Amino acid sequence: MERLERRNNLNALITLAVPVILEEILTTLLQYVDTAMVGRLGPAATASVSLTTTVNWLIGNVFGAVGIAFVAIISSAYGAGDKWKISRVSSQAIIYIMVLGMSVGLLAVGLSPFIPAWMQADMDIRRQASIYFAIISAPMVFRASSIICASALRAVKDTKTPMVINLVANGLNVILNYLLIYAAGLGVTGAAMATAVSSVLAGTLLFIHMFRKPVLNCHFRGLRFDKLVYRETVKIGLPAMATSTTSCLGHVVFASLVSSMGTTVFAAHSIALSAETIFYLPGYGLRSATSTLIGISVGENNKDKFRVVERQSVILTILMMTITGLLLFLFARPIMAIFTPDAEVIRQGSQVLKLIAVSEPLFGLMIVSEGIYYGLGQTKVTFIVETIGSWGIRILFTIICVKALHTSLFEVWICMFADNAFRALAMAIPLFAGRDVRYFESRRSGML
Description:
Elements: H1 2-39, H2 43-50, H3 53-80, H4 83-91, H5 93-111, H6 115-118, H7 123-137, H8 140-155, H9 160-183, H10 187-212, H11 227-259, H12 263-300, H13 303-330, H14 332-339, H15 343-357, H16 360-376, H17 379-405, H18 409-445
Helix pairs in contact: 1-9, 1-12, 1-13, 2-7, 2-12, 3-4, 3-5, 3-8, 3-11, 3-12, 5-7, 5-8, 7-10, 8-10, 9-10, 11-17, 12-13, 12-15, 12-16, 12-18, 13-15, 13-16, 14-15, 15-18, 16-18, 17-18
């Protein structure tokens, strides 16, 4: 019976993870096409689009923090069979989408003229980068809807709907890219317009499907701000948001430091970051599934199931990331050549990709550990580790490399390697030293 339960848990983990992994991989492949289409316009166009990537991560992670809180709360209620609580929490998504989406969108558009200068970009790409960022930030409410609604659906084991909708939206993005970048001759501005339209589509469709999901039972009737839901959302989401903010601000500073090394170096750095993405996506797919199943086991008050899910997710993630790391190492140069014809960009990018490929198993351990903490609602731990790793290791040593030692991009990526290794060990060791059970019991006592 125990063996059958382990097998069922493994099947549930894989069943939930596969749609997310496919979604992430296929979406990233479409983004590869997107990057390659812009890359054909030259390094300046690539740098204009890539310059605000880290700022976009920061914005997306604000909504993602709410999504993390919703997954923890709704999945626990789902495991406990509390239909009233599921409806109560998921209905609050409307308020969070409107308030956060509108406020963040207005702030982003307002700051768009200044961000390229803050990022220390070359003067010749600042205006283009500013226009690009303003256009993609305009439909921010829809972006908030896309992230928050997808989280609510995944919390009740529906990972297929977000997959299909996001693939359709990204497919439309690629089609519009061709029409607007090349056929209409709009270049980088056309790429921004395509991204904005696809965001509107994804946000609208996911919002509709969330409200049509019977188990979520979302409704507008009598909708008002719920203080109890807000408190638990803040308790879980605020440290997650602080983690994301700390991390992304670190990425912004990190990117600005690399940007100061010149357009060619920054183009190699940006393309390498994009190229690496697809190779760690299996880990993020498993993180999403792990968070949901951990939350459900908390709701069921099933400690044995919790431990099984925890161990299986770690083993499976490390195994998958070892395989993807090997592939990244072997095919680093051909992958870079997909995005740019520039020989120097290819050379520098392939060097750093081979370096970071070695750290993929550790990166996988970090990702899945985050998923466990998120499912338990223990987001303060990830905030502490993220802050130390991002600012105490990556940023500090990158400043030394760039400003004092004047090293190459390779040494800068060694700093990133060290950060990944630290975060993986700092998050995983407490879990497997026995603190996981204490976190489990703490989450049980803190449920609404």
